[in-house]
Design brief:
The protein is mainly alpha-helical. It has helices at 12-18, 27-41, 45-57, 61-73, 81-93, 97-109, 117-129, 133-145, 153-164, 169-181, 189-201, 205-215, 220-237. The chain has 13 helices and no strands.
Length: 242
């Protein structure tokens, strides 16, 4: 079964990178945002808001994204989904990839804004083009399912491939499905096994089940090829052990 769960990036560690992707800020702006982010990570949401708001008012798109998260989750402020989307949109239009992703998720789920799959695809694509792995996966899902755009298995496979090679377990699983079925790519059970095995190594239970099912369909020679391919992939796509 393919998993298409959406996650609105409350993964705040990712936000640290966003300040490097939105152009230079003056020292005061950067300091306020950094203090706001640190307070958010520490669970002091009121302080986070007090630091982040002036930074956002001075134009920092990363701060606008963080404020959007706070209003969406009701942390440090009363929950207000309309304000959340407003801040995401401001940050997104300034080019912040995390705000673009969060805005896309809002459109996809109809959270704080009328559901609009075409807008979701548009913003997923902009975030994906800037390297946001979750956006690459979600865009692949939208294209595979034909939601907000034309259904195109080949394009879906391409986006899954990008995310899968950067360690996205659901993209790895979905890419394996496409190889098993021969949708958007040439059918190849060896490659399907390898990607299912990579996803299984990250704890994806359904991928383990699919890998084991394919295993019995492979010849001894093809199984060795599949296991070798999996080992090569794991060296490049799995997180390094601490």
């Amino acid at each position: 079964m393919r998993v298409t769960t959406r996650v609105v990036l409350p993964v705040v560690s990712l936000l640290v990178l966003s300040c490097c992707l939105t152009g230079p800020l003056n020292a005061a702006d950067a300091s306020l945002y950094d203090k706001g982010l640190a307070a958010y990570n520490a669970g002091d949401y009121k302080a986070a808001y007090n630091f982040t708001l002036p930074s956002a008012n001075q134009g920092d798109p990363a701060a606008k994204n963080l404020l959007g998260m706070m209003y969406e989750l009701g942390k440090g402020v009363p929950q207000d989904l309309a304000k959340s989307v407003s801040y995401y949109r401001q940050g997104a239009e300034q080019g912040n990839p995390y705000a673009q992703y969060n805005l896309a998720v809002s459109f996809d789920s109809g959270t704080g804004v009328p559901q609009n799959y075409r807008e979701a695809v548009r913003w997923f694509r902009r975030a994906a083009d800037q390297g946001i792995i979750a956006a690459q996966y979600d865009l692949g899902v939208m294209i595979e399912q034909g939601r907000g755009t034309n259904k195109d298995f080949q394009k879906a496979a391409s986006w899954y491939q990008k995310a899968a090679r950067q360690g996205h377990v659901q993209a790895q699983n979905n890419l394996a499905w496409l190889y098993e079925k021969g949708q958007g790519v040439e059918r190849n059970l060896v490659t399907a096994y390898a990607w299912f095995d990579v996803a299984a190594a990250q704890g994806f239970e359904s991928a383990q089940q699919k890998r084991d099912a394919i295993k019995v369909a492979l010849s001894a020679k093809d199984l060795r090829k599949a296991q070798s391919k999996s080992a090569q992939l794991k060296e490049t796509v799995l997180p390094a052990a601490n």
